[in-house]
Automatic annotation (TrEMBL):
Record SUPFAM superfamilies: Neurotransmitter-gated ion-channel transmembrane pore (SSF90112), Nicotinic receptor ligand binding domain-like (SSF63712)
Keyword annotations of the record: Cell membrane, Disulfide bond, Glycoprotein, Ion channel, Ion transport, Ligand-gated ion channel, Membrane, Receptor, Signal, Synapse, Transmembrane, Transmembrane helix, Transport
Transmembrane region(s): 235-258, 270-288, 300-319
PROSITE patterns: NEUROTR_ION_CHANNEL (PS00236)
Signal peptide: 1-23
Organism: Gasterosteus aculeatus aculeatus (three-spined stickleback)
Compartments where located: Synaptic cell membrane
Pfam family of the protein (one): Neur_chan_memb
Protein name, UniProt field: Cholinergic receptor nicotinic alpha 1 subunit
Membrane topology type: Multi-pass membrane protein
Domain Neurotransmitter-gated ion-channel ligand-binding: from-to ranges: 27-233
InterPro entries: Neur_chan_lig-bd (IPR006202), Neur_chan_lig-bd_sf (IPR036734), Neur_channel (IPR006201), Neuro-gated_channel_TM_sf (IPR036719), Neuro_actylchol_rec (IPR038050), Neurotrans-gated_channel_TM (IPR006029), Neurotransmitter_ion_chnl_CS (IPR018000), Nicotinic_acetylcholine_rcpt (IPR002394)
Length: 461
């Protein structure tokens, strides 16, 4: 390598290194010039009567959690702030064309924005990131924050609920005459929002308010309130809570389809009650423990428990009634009137209707009776001689009467007790039908309190 080549290489290396050195030197001079004699406790205005105009925006990143018990909404946000500092401007041509620099936020004046409805110990922004400073004096600061805001949770229709939560931002020490805050848009920024598996945002708006507090009646304070209308996704609770409760309700009704003679009615009822009790112990933490209102799902579980206990009581009555007989108990007239004649007709229970007079006469005096039924011999055929006596209507009626008397005397005790026994069994059927009807109507009425169309909400205005 000759001497000229080495000189050219050295000049190229020096030119590469000289650029960063000069740029770093220019930025150092600029920062020293800006912060010499600068005070971060003084508002950046030309005159004391002027107000600093701050543009405020909220970017919602993630909805972390909603604590229904403590009524706290935890969210991940970025608080965007822009204002102009008249003491921090320069000519880019004097400092190597530098138009923007980044300086620590702790070294400059900042509006003391706080979350008014804060539910945690920290009202202000904790993480002090750097600010972007332009040569015109315009400052942009987008610090991240974890806000824990208070929100009045209405759990009446839980888990099919719709919540309206808000975040109220404003300056703590500067009134509206010293610092004016304006929302940068009518809605929060959701461009980087990460969807939640439990909540979906149906509407979101921002409003600016002017409030006169009792401590300072002549000084209006400004705040910007962001409202979020959140709809809960109930799939988790439907699969893990509602469907199991519906299955328990189905088993409760299945108890009355089990034959009483099997002797397993009480076993099935107690098994369902124990299963429901264990299930309630497992899912009790999923239900908001608040006394402001009884959640819809809590009502349903309460009714399910009442159904199971009521089914056990009705089962005891059914078993007791099943083992009653006409020889031990006499059915009162009012029970027969209510449970056998009135209620079955109201419920269109056709199997309990008393046979008509014609049907009873047909059962008593069958028209197709053959004379061989009395004598025991085969009936005469067309080739057999038929006595004219048997063709006499009076004789035929006498034979039919003798047959009826014989059958009646043969099963006298059975015939006397069977209608009464059937009456007791019909009473049991009415008990079962009434209880099953009560289960269906009450179970449906619990969820009928929820609006049919959950999407038909009132938007924020």
């Amino acid at each position: 390598m000759n001497r000229s080549t080495v000189q050219i290489l050295l000049l190229w290396i020096l030119s590469v290194l000289a650029g960063p050195v000069s740029c770093s030197e220019a930025e150092t001079r600029l920062v020293k010039k800006l912060f010499t004699g600068y005070s971060k406790v003084v508002r950046p205005v030309d005159h004391f009567s002027d107000a600093v105009v701050v543009s405020v925006g909220l970017q919602l990143i993630q909805l972390i959690s909603v604590d229904e018990v403590n009524q706290i909404v935890t969210s991940n946000v970025r608080l965007k702030q822009r204002w102009r500092d008249v003491n921090l401007n320069w000519d880019p041509d004097d400092y190597g064309g530098i138009r923007k620099i980044r300086v620590p936020s702790t070294d400059i004046w900042k509006p003391d924005l706080v979350l008014y409805n804060n539910a945690d110990g920290d009202f202000a922004i904790i993480h002090q990131t750097k600010v972007l400073l332009e040569h015109t004096g315009m400052i942009t600061w987008n610090p991240p924050a974890i806000f824990k805001s208070y929100c009045e949770i209405i759990v009446l229709h839980f888990p099919f609920d719709l919540q309206n939560c808000s975040m109220k931002l404003g300056t703590w020490t500067y009134d509206g005459l010293l610092v004016v805050i304006n929302p940068d848009s009518a809605r929060p920024d959701l461009s980087n929002f990460m969807e939640s598996g439990e909540w979906v945002l149906k509407d979101y708006r921002s409003w600016k308010h002017t409030v006169n507090y009792s401590c300072c009646p002549n000084k209006p304070y400004l705040d910007i309130t962001y409202h979020f209308l959140m709809l809960r996704l109930p799939l988790y609770f439907i699969v893990n809570v509602i469907i199991p409760c519906m299955l328990f309700s189905f088993l409760t009704g299945l108890v009355f389809y089990l034959p009483t003679d099997s002797g397993e009615k009480m076993t099935l009822s107690i098994s369902v009650l124990l299963s429901l009790t264990v299930f309630l112990l497992v899912i009790v933490e999923l239900i908001p423990s608040t006394s402001s209102a009884v959640p819809l799902i809590g009502k349903y579980m309460l009714f399910t428990m009442v159904f199971v206990i009521a089914s056990i009581i009705i089962t005891v009555i059914v078993i007791n009634t099943h083992h009653r007989s006409p020889s031990t108990h006499t059915m009162p007239a009012w029970i027969r009137k209510v449970f056998i004649e009135t209620i079955p007709n109201m419920m269109f229970f056709s199997t309990m209707k008393r046979p008509s007079l014609e049907i009873r006469q047909m059962r008593m005096f069958p028209t197709d009776m053959d004379i061989s039924d009395i004598s025991g011999n085969p009936a005469p055929t067309s080739d057999t001689y038929v006595s004219p006596i048997t063709k006499n209507p009076d004789v035929r009626r006498a034979i039919e009467g003798v047959k009826y008397i014989a059958e009646t005397m043969k099963s006298d005790e059975e015939s006397n007790n069977k209608p009464k026994l059937i009456a007791w069994q019909q009473k049991l059927q009415v008990y079962k039908l009434l209880f099953l009807f009560w289960i269906k109507q009450t179970r449906c009425s619990v969820f009928m309190r929820e609006p049919l169309d959950r999407a038909s909400f009132q938007p924020l205005c």
